[in-house]
């Protein structure tokens, strides 16, 4: 074990920073890749499932998300599973009845082609991420049931195995995060809409004349139908429609609604663009995802030892299709914050230590988590506010439902390409936060941090 003398002549022992990550989904895997790159760390990821989950719908990858992935892994491995199609990855918005294009959301002209927004599906993306996590870091079938903050760190308690203690715990356990509910006890609630989703071979719809070779969304008064190829020979459908609380209670997350549910969907979209029904006619069932929401965390850290990322911190319930990208942004900000808080001693020597000596890491966790929180909170607050403002805009547009021309005018008037979100530069935001942050004397003088 390494040690050095600080400016007071006290012996300070340096050992790896112990990092525990709860959850091995898209965000947890990204956190594992990023944090494993830090110097002097020991990373363990705990996933309650017995293995990687082979389910999930399509994923939108924004410019921001692709730039972050490019920093962490070989982006060519991701490019191989992406779909952009016509309009170079742009989402096209169509009139619900006519299919006429009424808006589009292109990437900025200066964005390199490899970073243009794209679609894929969850399983191949997760597989690419998992292939970049160091071997042995992820431990499956490890169900975290609680945690306790102690003088020596955060003790994670498991359902079927002994507790383990970490200097830093990263909560990446998603919408139903037990760690978040320990601090924000408000329940997860149904938000009034259900997402019906399905992936199937693209050959299933190859015979449909006039089917668009792009990522299209048909919109009407808060309800949406998405259709798109997704790469790797797959095609995806996502329908978001309003359903009563009573009906939503009969549904199970990610479970098929069967032929009956599919017929219900066809009736709902009977008056929409006929191309939608042609796609639905090729299907035998569709899965339901009742859209739940929970309060967002106003602070992303607790006790200078716990950091929340992804839906565990800000459950978006599918807003903007940017949940995965926002979680990846969290991971990059946390990585850079820890990287900045690492101190390098001027001299290191081996020494024998008393048995009761508590070793320390070379990371100032308090400073790191302050930087992380300060980097991400303003952006996330903007997203949360925008969701509320978009709801008000939706009501304004819906008031013209009986006047098609006015409805289109209002939609185009209020439609915005959310580049501030999809192209948000997390690295630039971190640098700005770092420039404004005071540097403590302990960091300037390379004196031992609090751990």
UniProtKB/TrEMBL annotation:
Please give the Gene Ontology molecular function terms for this protein: FAD binding; monooxygenase activity
InterPro entries, sorted: FAD-bd (IPR002938), FAD-dep_Monooxygenase_BioMet (IPR050493), FAD/NAD-bd_sf (IPR036188)
Q: Which UniProt keywords apply?
A: FAD, Flavoprotein, Monooxygenase, Oxidoreductase
The protein's required cofactor(s) are namely: FAD
Question: In this protein, which residues make up the domain named FAD-binding?
Answer: 19-341
Which SUPFAM superfamilies did the record assign?
FAD/NAD(P)-binding domain
**Similarity field:** Belongs to the paxM FAD-dependent monooxygenase family.
Name of the featured protein: FAD-binding domain-containing protein
Organism whose genome encodes this protein: Venustampulla echinocandica
The beginning of the lineage is: Eukaryota, Fungi, Dikarya, Ascomycota, Pezizomycotina
């Amino acid at each position: 074990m390494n040690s050095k003398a600080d400016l007071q002549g006290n012996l300070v022992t340096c050992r790896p920073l112990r990092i525990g990550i709860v959850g091995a989904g898209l965000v947890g895997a990204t956190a594992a890749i990023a944090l494993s790159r830090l110097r002097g760390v020991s990373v363990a990821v705990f996933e309650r499932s017995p293995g990687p989950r082979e389910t999930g719908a399509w994923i939108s990858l924004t410019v921001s998300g692709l730039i972050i992935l490019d920093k962490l892994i070989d982006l060519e491995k991701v490019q191989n599973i992406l779909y952009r199609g016509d309009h170079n990855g742009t989402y096209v918005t169509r009139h619900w009845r006519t299919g006429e294009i009424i808006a589009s959301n292109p990437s900025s002209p200066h964005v390199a082609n490899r970073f243009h927004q794209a679609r894929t599906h969850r399983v191949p993306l997760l597989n690419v991420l998992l292939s970049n996590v160091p071997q042995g870091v992820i431990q499956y079938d490890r169900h975290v049931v609680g945690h306790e903050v102690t003088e020596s760190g955060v003790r994670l308690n498991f359902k079927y195995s002994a507790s383990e203690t970490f200097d830093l715990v990263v909560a990446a356990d998603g919408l139903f995060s037990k760690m978040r509910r320990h601090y924000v006890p408000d329940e997860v609630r149904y938000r009034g809409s259900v997402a019906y989703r399905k992936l199937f071979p693209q050959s299933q719809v190859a015979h449909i004349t006039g089917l668009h070779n792009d990522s299209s969304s048909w919109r009407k008064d808060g309800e949406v139908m998405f259709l798109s190829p997704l790469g790797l020979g797959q095609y995806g459908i996502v329908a978001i429609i309003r359903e009563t609380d009573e009906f939503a209670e009969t549904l199970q997350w990610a479970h098929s609604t069967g032929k009956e549910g599919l017929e219900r969907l066809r009736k709902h979209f009977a008056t929409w663009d006929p191309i939608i029904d042609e796609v639905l006619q090729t299907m035998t069932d569709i899965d339901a995802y009742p859209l739940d929401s929970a309060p967002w965390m106003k602070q992303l850290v607790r006790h200078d030892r716990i950091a929340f990322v992804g839906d565990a911190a800000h459950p978006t319930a599918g807003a903007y299709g940017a949940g995965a990208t926002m979680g990846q942004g969290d991971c990059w900000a946390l990585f850079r914050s820890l990287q900045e808080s690492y101190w390098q001693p001027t001299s290191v020597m081996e020494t024998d230590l008393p048995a009761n000596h508590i070793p320390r890491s070379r990371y100032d966790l308090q400073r790191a988590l302050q930087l992380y929180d300060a980097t991400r909170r303003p952006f996330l607050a903007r997203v949360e506010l925008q969701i509320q403002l978009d709801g008000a805009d939706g009501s304004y547009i819906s008031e013209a439902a009986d006047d098609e021309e006015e409805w289109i005018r209002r939609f185009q008037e209020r439609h915005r390409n959310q580049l501030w979100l999809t192209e948000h530069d997390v690295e630039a935001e971190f640098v700005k936060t770092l420039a404004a942050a005071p540097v403590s004397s302990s960091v300037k003088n390379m004196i031992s941090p609090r751990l």
